[in-house]
Write a structure and sequence with these properties.
This is Transposase. It comes from Ramlibacter aquaticus. The protein is elongated, with a radius of gyration of 21 Å. By secondary structure, it is mainly α. It starts with a helix and ends with a helix. The longest helix is centred in the middle third of the chain and has 14 residues.
Length: 56
């Protein structure tokens, strides 16, 4: 398979190991996260960008 895909065996096995590892799971929906971001934005009166919002 590696020959057909023109990929080295080490690259394939490295990819396979990382693809099976579970990634971080979020327990918050995108809608809830967006509502939280808008609340912070309103709290800061829209004057600051992501660096200040990230600190909150």
């Amino acid at each position: 398979m590696c020959e057909v895909l023109e990929v080295s065996p080490s690259a394939y096995f490295s990819w396979e190991a990382t693809s099976r590892r579970p990634g971080p799971r979020r327990n918050v929906s995108d809608e809830a996260l967006l509502a939280h971001i808008w609340a912070i934005h309103e709290q800061l009166r829209g004057e600051y960008g992501w660096p200040r919002m990230h600190k909150l």
